[in-house]
Model the fold of this input.
Amino acid sequence: MLSTIIRKVRTLLHPARGVKISAVRKAEILLENKNGYRTFIETGTEFGGTIKSLRHAFEHIFSIELDQQLYEDAVMRFAGDSGITLYSGDSARVLPEILKTIDEPSLIWLDAHPPGRITRRNSPIIGELETIFAHHHHHTVVMDDARHFSFPAIWEIRWKARRAGYECRVSEGLLYLK
Done:
């Protein structure tokens, strides 16, 4: 009984409870956070919609996709565009390799997670953030689907972000680190 009450209270107090925004709005938000960055990095290519929406705004886009078929589809879709580099694999493992090639602050979009509730155990988010925080440049990071993050995951993200000198806020269902 008490655990049910606690769960309901947490749901009511969750910083992004029930907030879902459209793909168009996400692209607008990312463009609003461009801040002169020339490089965009995303985890979770999926169908390549974010790449397509933002291609005109960045000199180079890096994108990582875990699902082999989605990766292959994206490779076909963006073939011949030298400003787009696609990777297949676990974003927590591939992101460090990408950041080794980046020598300037970038806009980073983290969206590589399974459907449903996002925890430390089922998402690469903590590993991705540790990699970003260890990089020698201070990036702007936007994370999708804040409504799905567990309370412990949000607390850990905020704590690690503060330790790394980033401010953390939640708005329109997204987590922002600047």
Notes: Strands lie at 39-43, 60-65, 84-88, 107-110, 140-143, 168-171, 174-177. The chain has a mean pLDDT of 87. Residues 2-177 form a domain with the Rossmann fold fold (CATH 3.40.50.150). The chain has seven helices and seven strands.
